[in-house]
UniProtKB/TrEMBL annotation:
Basic and acidic residues bias: start-end ranges: 66-84
The Ribbon-helix-helix protein CopG domain, residue ranges: 6-40
InterPro entries in alphabetical order: Arc_rbn_hlx_hlx, CopG, Ribbon_hlx_hlx
Protein name: Ribbon-helix-helix protein, CopG family
Annotated segments matching region Disordered: 60-84
Signal sequence bounds: none
A family per Pfam: RHH_1
Length: 84
């Protein structure tokens, strides 16, 4: 899939919403904004499974207890969905 880079100016309140979402979901700014656009235009939206949510919460707890053991979200996602 070809990609294009764009610059977007956001009001402070929207920027903060994006930042909170990406921190909680361990996703990039681009992923959060892409999902928002897909939702607005009616395309399918990524919704984490119960297992993904469970693992995410466990990972957040683990990272809070030992930040040196935290892992990259792309690695975790690849483990959850090896077929992709």
């Amino acid at each position: 899939m070809a990609v294009r880079k764009v610059a977007v100016t956001l009001p402070e309140e929207l920027f903060e919403i994006v930042e909170r979402a990406r921190a909680v979901e361990h996703r990039t700014r681009s992923e959060v904004i892409q999902e928002a656009l897909r939702t607005h235009f009616g395309e399918a939206v990524y919704v984490p499974s119960a297992e993904e949510r469970h693992r995410l919460l466990a990972g957040l707890d683990e990272a809070a207890q030992d930040p040196e053991r935290s892992r990259d979200w792309a690695q975790v996602r690849a483990e959850l969905h090896p077929e992709q």
